[in-house]
Each structure stands twice: as structure tokens, then as C-alpha cells.
């Protein structure tokens, strides 16, 4: 067997595999001999079928199968030994003239080669890492929400600004008939609120759906219609009030503190505020870190320049999926995935350069931490190591979960590296200001 490679350019190559008779003949003869021992052919006893007849009936199929196995093994071994960093998979060049009655065979494969490039994590312009804090306004709002949630419900005769109103939305033409409990602050603008203030049980209020809520999702849930039906819906609905209540705020006492956090964990309003601040800012760290990871990723993709074997990859995408694509669709798919592919190559280069690896212990440890947090949400605060190991084993028996957790571990390792190596500036601000600065004033 002989394998040669012709480099077309820095990103494309053709590998030629020549297979001679001596490479496969012994294996083919052995398989045919085994067939002869077991073949059931009318007119012959088992094991006494003439070899010529066995070859005539099975010879070509066995030959094709063995040559293909030999070809794939040889190609994979060659790529490994030559340490070729290929993208996608080798693509066999079209050959319509293979003479399977001959002794020697030649096959050609197109290769897409990974580009040579370097990555510089440190940007010239500093990337912002946000330190998001829970300000007094947020803490007070959270305390009020807690007091409402655990407060008493008191019946009212008429609707006031802070009432909870239960009633039924109806529109016969659109088959809308849905009972909900709502608060006036959810409506868009003050006009709708004014229609409700002073209303009593049994009153029917007519509303226009257009502009009723800021978000179509709110309208969708209120009317119990599909997302598509809610989008741009412009009809009149009636709302018949069946119940009006007000929530009296719960007292900020030890009974409430124990109910929220366990006995004697929090003993005063000051400690409550500190606890709310601490818990909120733990969650903010995750958002801040994800923002930093996204920003560094975007910087690296935009500023790490290299070419890709686009024509090869488009052709590979055309034939590698469950369904073969036409050329135009494959080109479109390649363009959609090019940015993701570029980052995969950049990520691999960074991990190699900095010796970052993900082993099974990393994945297992991450899985156990995730399980521990989930159990804590249901009040199981001190699970044993055996419990965690048993649950983790079940989780990690699912390959999709292993892949997902491995990706999380990679992100964590990269984030730690970026915090150390990237050009980062820290900016402290409240959550409201963070949302406004990062996502716009919504």
C-alpha cells in the first residue's frame, strides 16, 4: 500500500491511496473459505461447495467490503501519523471507473486543513467586567415583594391602584374566555388603569387589545391565545370583575425571617437587607461573568484573522448531514456557521497554548456541584457524598449531559484565564444601570 499527499495550497490537499493485491488478497481468501464452510447452495453438501462457485457468488462483494475497510483504516492511520489537523472529514473524489475485476486500486480524498494562526487574548482597548451591586432601591423593592407574597389577602369593595383583580376576559368571535388575576401596574399607560379604579364586582370593562400590554407575551397569557394570535391583535374584549382583593403587607418579624431562611439565620431587618443583597449579588456575578465571556469571545472572533477552506467545507456540509443539500443551501449553511467554526478553532488554540484540559474528574465535580445546588432549592442542604456520587453517575451516563457539562467546564476555565490574561477594566453599577447600559433602555 502506498499513500501520498499533494498540498494544493495552505488549506487544501489531496491524499492518494494505492492498494495492491497483496494488501487484501489473504483476507479476502480467508473470508471466502469461511463462506464455503457454511454456504447453503442447492445441489451441494454444506462445506463441499466448489470455491469457484463461492467466488462467483460472493467474491466481488467481499472484495469491495474489505478494500473499503482497508482504505478507511489506512487513511485514519495516515492522518494520525502525519499529525494533520483536518476540518470536517476527508471527502472521496468522484470515481466512476473503478475496475473491481482488476488487482490494484487507487483512491483520492480531498482534505480541508486547519489554518495556522496565533491568538492574542490581550486587546488594546480594555474590555469591561461589570461588578453589579444590589442598590437600596432594589433591596427595598424585594422586601416589599416578600411582604406582599407572605401578607394577608383582604377583600375590597372597589378597585384601588394596588388591588389584585380577578375576572374573565371574553370575545365570542375569537373564542376568548379566560379567567385571570391581574394587577393594574401590568397594563401599558394610565388610560386602562383609570377604567378600573373605582370599579366593583360584577362590573364589565371593555378594553382594546392593541397597546393593552407592553409585551405580546403578557397579552398571550391574559387571553390564553397563541403567540401568533397575540402578535398585533387588535380587537375589543370585555373583562367581568368577579373578585377584588388587596394584600396587607406581612410584618418584618422573626416568624417571617425563619420562614424565609430557616430558624435564626436572619434576626433583624438589617440582617434581612444584608442577606437579600448577598443573594442577589451572587446571581449578578453569573450574569457579569457571562457578559465578559461573550465580549472576549466576540473580540477574539473579530480580531483573530485567518482563512478557512470555505469551498471544501461547503462541499463537506453538502454531503455530511442526514439529508444531502444542494449547493446553494450548503453555502448558506456554511455562512451561518462560519463564525462558530472560527471560534471553535480559536478556543482550541487557546486551550492548547495555555495547557487547559477537561478531564472526567472536572466533569464529575461540576455535575456534583450542580446537583448540590438543585437539592438545596428543595431544602436538602447536606446530602452525603454517596448520594451525590450516585446521582452524578446517573447524570453522566447520558452522553448529551456529559457534553453539556464539559462545555460548561471549558467556559469556566476560559473565563478564569481571561480574568487573568485579558485587558479588563472593572465597572461597578446597579443592576438597573447594568441592564440599561448593556441591553438598552427597555
From TrEMBL:
Its EC number is 5.2.1.8. It is an enzyme of class 5 (isomerase). Gene3D superfamilies: Trigger factor ribosome-binding domain (3.30.70.1050), Trigger factor, C-terminal domain (1.10.3120.10). InterPro entries: Trig_fac, Trigger_fac_C, Trigger_fac_C_sf, Trigger_fac_ribosome-bd_bac, Trigger_fac_ribosome-bd_sf, Trigger_fact/SurA_dom_sf. Residues 1-146 form the Trigger factor ribosome-binding bacterial domain. Keywords: Chaperone, Isomerase, Rotamase. Residues 268-397 form the Trigger factor C-terminal domain. GO terms for molecular function: peptidyl-prolyl cis-trans isomerase activity; protein folding chaperone; ribosome binding. GO terms for cellular component: cytoplasm. It is found in: Cytoplasm. It catalyses: [protein]-peptidylproline (omega=180) = [protein]-peptidylproline (omega=0). GO terms for biological process: 'de novo' cotranslational protein folding; protein transport; protein unfolding. Pfam families: Trigger_C, Trigger_N. Belongs to the FKBP-type PPIase family. Tig subfamily. This is Trigger factor. The lineage of its organism: Bacteria, Pseudomonadati, Bacteroidota, Flavobacteriia, Flavobacteriales. The gene is tig.
Amino acid at each position: 500500500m502506498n499513500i501520498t499527499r499533494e498540498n494544493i495550497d495552505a488549506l487544501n490537499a489531496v491524499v492518494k491511496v494505492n492498494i495492491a493485491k497483496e494488501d487484501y488478497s489473504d483476507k479476502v481468501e480467508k473470508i471466502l473459505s469461511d463462506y464455503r464452510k457454511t454456504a447453503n447452495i442447492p445441489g451441494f453438501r454444506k462445506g463441499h461447495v466448489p470455491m469457484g462457485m463461492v467466488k462467483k457468488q460472493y467474491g466481488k462483494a467481499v472484495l469491495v467490503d474489505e478494500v473499503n475497510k482497508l482504505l478507511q483504516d489506512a487513511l485514519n492511520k495516515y492522518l494520525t501519523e502525519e499529525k494533520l489537523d483536518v476540518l470536517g472529514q476527508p471527502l472521496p473524489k468522484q470515481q466512476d471507473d473503478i475496475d473491481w475485476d482488476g488487482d490494484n486500486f487507487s483512491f483520492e480524498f480531498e482534505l480541508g486543513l486547519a489554518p495556522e494562526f496565533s491568538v492574542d487574548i490581550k486587546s488594546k482597548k480594555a474590555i469591561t467586567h461589570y461588578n453589579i451591586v444590589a442598590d437600596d432601591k432594589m433591596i427595598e423593592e424585594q422586601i416589599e415583594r416578600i411582604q406582599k407574597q407572605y401578607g394577608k389577602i383582604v377583600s375590597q369593595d372597589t378597585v384601588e391602584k394596588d388591588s389584585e383583580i380577578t375576572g374573565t376576559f371574553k370575545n365570542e368571535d375569537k373564542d376568548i374566555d379566560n379567567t385571570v388575576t391581574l394587577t393594574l401596574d401590568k397594563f401599558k399607560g394610565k388610560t386602562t388603569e383609570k377604567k378600573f379604579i373605582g370599579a366593583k364586582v360584577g362590573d364589565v370593562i371593555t378594553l382594546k387589545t392593541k397597546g393593552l400590554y407592553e409585551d405580546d407575551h403578557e397579552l398571550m397569557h391574559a387571553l390564553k391565545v397563541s403567540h401568533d394570535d397575540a402578535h398585533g391583535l387588535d380587537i375589543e374584549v370585555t373583562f367581568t370583575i368577579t373578585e377584588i382583593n388587596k394584600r396587607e403587607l406581612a410584618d418584618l418579624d422573626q416568624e417571617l425571617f425563619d420562614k424565609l431562611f430557616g430558624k435564626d439565620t436572619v434576626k433583624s431587618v438589617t440582617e434581612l437587607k444584608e442577606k437579600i443583597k448577598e443573594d442577589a449579588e451572587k446571581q449578578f456575578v453569573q450574569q457579569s461573568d457571562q457578559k465578559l465571556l461573550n465580549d472576549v469571545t466576540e473580540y477574539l472572533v473579530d480580531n483573530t484573522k485567518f482563512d478557512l477552506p470555505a469551498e471544501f467545507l461547503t462541499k463537506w456540509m453538502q454531503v455530511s448531514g442526514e439529508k444531502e443539500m444542494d449547493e446553494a443551501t450548503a453555502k448558506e449553511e456554511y455562512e451561518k456557521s462560519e463564525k462558530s467554526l472560527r471560534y471553535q478553532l480559536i478556543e482550541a488554540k487557546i486551550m492548547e497554548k495555555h495547557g487547559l484540559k477537561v478531564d472526567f474528574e472536572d466533569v464529575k465535580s461540576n455535575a456534583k456541584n450542580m446537583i448540590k445546588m438543585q437539592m438545596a432549592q428543595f431544602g436538602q442542604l447536606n446530602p452525603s457524598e454517596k448520594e451525590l456520587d450516585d446521582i452524578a453517575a446517573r447524570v453522566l451516563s447520558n452522553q448529551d449531559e456529559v457534553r453539556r457539562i464539559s462545555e460548561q467546564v471549558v467556559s469556566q476555565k476560559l473565563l478564569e484565564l481571561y480574568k487573568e490574561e485579558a485587558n479588563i477594566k472593572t465597572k461597578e453599577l446597579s443592576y438597573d444601570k447594568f441592564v440599561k447600559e448593556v441591553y438598552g433602555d427597555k
